[in-house]
Write the structure tokens for this entry.
Amino acid sequence: MKRIFLTGYMGAGKTTVGKKLAQLAELSFIDLDKHIEARYSRSVSRIFEEKGEEEFRRIEQRMLHEVAAFEDVVISTGGGAPCFFDNMAFMKKSGLTVYLKVSVDELAKRLDVGRSTRPVLQGKTGDDLKRFIAENLNRREEFYNRADIIFNAEVMLTKTDIHAISAELKQMITEIPAQ
């Protein structure tokens, strides 16, 4: 039985790598944010807006516990999920945790393109965007760095890059005994 939790900042490639890794390792894939959206019939940003961050984080924790009961699965967590309650310790106890590590500059490039779909980034460009990412990443890395595997996911420009990252992660994961 395998349960792999992908963590990292938004834009790190958790969903992209997670889908490919699941395919290569013949595991199921779950995006925690999409699971929450399906369960609550509304977007994560709308839940955040309607209920506030504190209630969203409680929902996120409940849904994390729910999907952690699944077996043979790759779970892409939300960027903040490991940073609240005992979520990171819970994930480490429930399976293998992987931090997809990406620099502030690269995250800013990736997130600049998709700013319109991420409400927290609305109106942030250039240095403001980099500063916002750096401040948040600085707070969150304490949690991300507790992962079982810290994986450099800096270069993810092509399908070939995504395949190579996923294949390397699959190899690393197979070398670790199932939990």
Q: What stands out?
A: Residues 44-67 form the longest helix (24 residues).
